[in-house]
Design brief:
It contains 5 helices and 2 strands. By secondary structure, it is mainly α. It has a single domain, classed as 434 Repressor (Amino-terminal Domain), CATH 1.10.260.40. The two termini are 14 Å apart. The model has no long low-confidence stretch (mean pLDDT 93).
């Protein structure tokens, strides 16, 4: 069974006033990676999820959730 993650990354990124490119640079990934995460195409690794949460000043749970 494949479960699609619910992502709140775009909302947190825009609230922080960051572009996809700026968040990508903070996370050490490409802008396309951020785009695919925000669109639910790519599920980030645990390390990347933690890095993005740190860059945005929130928790991984704030960024990602499993559907009910």
């Amino acid at each position: 069974m494949t479960t699609k993650l619910i992502t709140h990354l775009r909302a947190h990124r825009t609230d922080a006033g960051l572009t996809q490119a700026e968040l990508a640079a903070a996370g050490g990934v490409s802008r396309k990676t951020i785009n695919t995460i925000e669109n639910g195409v790519f599920t980030p690794s645990t390390i990347l999820a933690l890095t993005l949460a740190d860059a945005l000043g929130c928790t991984v749970h704030d960024l990602f959730a499993l559907p009910d």
